[in-house]
Amino acid sequence: MRLPHPVYRLYERRLAASLPRDRVPRHVGVILDGNRRWARSIGESTAHGHQAGADKIAELLGWSEDVGVEVVTLWMLSTDNLNRPADELDPLLDIIEHAVRDLAAAGRWRLQAVGSLDLLPAHTSAALREAEAATAEVTGLHVNVAVGYGGRHEIADAVRSFLREHAEAGTSVDELAGQFDVEHIAERLYTKGQPDPDLVIRTSGEQRLGGFLLWQSVHSEFYFCEAYWPDFRRVDFLRAVRAYAARERRLGR
Predict the structure, then answer these.
(1) Which residues are documented as binding site for substrate?
(2) Fewer beta carbons within 10 angstroms: which end of the chain, N or C?
């Protein structure tokens, strides 16, 4: 139930003020889920839902900046989503391209494309690369745009990269087996060099990762929100950060 506007604003301010600044997540991953169901719930088209979801992204990034988050990873399109019918996928890719261009044009955030870009149409992968290049020198919030992303694909790509590198150097299979370590995968992930996600948020009430950052999220805290992504509010984000700050993180120890 939504609170009356003045009460909501007061609650939001108090919630923001109560966050312990020394326990804010450095890296937040967000599964932007529920666009289609949100659209159906108000009698609108799927494309309308995806556009509403895209319009929410800049707000999320602003909220993340406000509390001191350093990296945000946005899962906008999975490898499984690439199997959707063309009459849904094509408009969605168009919306993603425009959203990424708009984020780059803002000049506030450094964008990085993460995913199997070779699986995407050439115009989509080009838009992602152009946004990367345009924001390469931006020093603000680092934003990973996960398009054509699947956790299994990412791990397979990392292993493939390792094997190719050593095959070119003439390393034998036995030598490879003896040398192989978890760090060889970590060093070749799409997010190499970044902190692993401290907090992963999924909207729409679904309580599963669905393949999101499978390797990196081994020690992440998870927060599942009932709101569909277009309805996700600042107060929902602050509640997720508050829940994270209240947890005792053991990090496998």
Answers:
(1) 34-38, 50, 78-80, 84, 202
(2) N
